Amino acid sequence: MAKGTDETGSNRPKLALHVPEPRYRPGDTVDFSDLNIPEPGKQPRPDETAPAKDTYPLCDDLIRVLGDDHQAHGPWDPRLSPETLRQMLREMALVRAFDNRMYRAQRQGKTSFYMKCTGEEATSVCATHALAGDDMIFPSYRQQGCLIARGYELTEMINQIYSNKADKLKGRQLPIMYCSKRLNFFSISGNLATQLPQATGFAMASASKGDSRIAATWVGEGSTAEGDFHSALTFATVYNAPVIFNVINNQWAISSFSGFAGAERATFAARAIGYGIAGLRVDGNDPLAVYAAERWAADRARSNAGPTLIEHFTYRAEGHSTSDDPSAYRSAEEREEWPLGDPVTRLKRHLVALGEWSKEQHEAMDDELDAMVRAAMKEAEKNGILGHGLHHPFGTMFEDVFEELPWHLKEQSEQAIRERQIKWPEDPAE
Ligand SMILES: Cc1ncc(C[n+]2csc(CCOP(=O)(O)OP(=O)(O)O)c2C)c(N)n1
Fold first, then answer.
1. Domains of the chain, each with CATH number or no CATH
2. pLDDT tens profile 152-182
3. Cα separation of 236 and 197, whole Å?
4. Cα(193) to centroid of ligand 1, in Å?
5. In testing the pocket of ligand 1, which one of 188, 217, 254, 315 has its CB within 8 Å of the most ligand atoms?
6. Confidence of residue 425 (pLDDT cuts 50, 70, 90)
7. pTM of the model
């Protein structure tokens, strides 16, 4: 074999596959000092109706408002009233209190499954505040903050989590996969990314009917690897659909890090460039920046200036779900070293710096919210918890999907009644 050639005689270089590897594994010392975290207030704010390309420098930047001095800085400061700031703080703290109690409820066997959004509360609560109440929300499974910001009753959420007899979804959905028609909160799907084309479709329908309601959807950065992401953005750009794509980059997709969805090459916000739509990259742990970016995108969509992709740069502080143990795949130091802090603490300190809040008020609020969650749990438990038999009759599994039960399901339901002796709540033919 000639020197520099392989067995076929070719001197072409050997191809090598790149397999992304996270920087830190369990036990590693974490150093995030090379992350580019720009100074708050320094990011330019284009007009809401500016050409999409005016936003492209922001796809590689990070919109930030709250500084280490706990004050708001720069053109993205949304200048919210202290009342609104306190309301957002309260709702984020309520989400956290709810998450903590529900996590414990799962450990106590009251439900089979729960998912927290610790550290990501601003990306749902503050973004929802920037929308109109009748705008349609197409969530993923970590957006309990959207429902709480729209005032959904905690007892209803817990009934769903417990799959009990008062669960409006009759136990057919995985716990936490809520929906509320009244609050314009679309059904959560366990199949990742389906909400994206649905949101674009809603926005297109809204525009074609001459309505004023826009759509906002949320998706994890890992799920942007799904084909639905591409379809949704293509339709959105082609038809200039009034839709906001919130990509929650919390760095992890269960045990896969963001590199497996392409983060080593470009930011997620930069994907907007390829579709020719507006793109913003925002500090997802900065409640004011999240509100400002979402409001910018909502005003843009509502004035027919087109869709926006917002990357919320944040960190999933806890496990993916109650079925996950993050200590098996990532360094425990990541959470402590995360350079963007905690959204609840940041807003709290801002309000204290404004003279509009105090440590004592915050402690009293936390106690009050925890008591509120516990009271809602008691109420929901009257309707049953997992395994206590207070659920919807099994026969209901065949209802509500088809107006007329197809023959094969009719056969299955009759077989189920015969063999399993399940109780049929009412005659399906009636
Ligand atoms: C189509 C599809 N593929 C895979 C899964 C399994 N799965 C559930 S959650 C998840 C990780 C998603 O991560 P990401 O989109 O980053 O959201 P995060 O959980 O971080 O909020 C995976 C792979 C699924 N539910 N649906």
1. 52-381 (3.40.50.970), 393-430 (no CATH)
2. 999 999 999 999 999 999 998 999 999 999 9
3. 9
4. 9
5. 254
6. low
7. 0.95
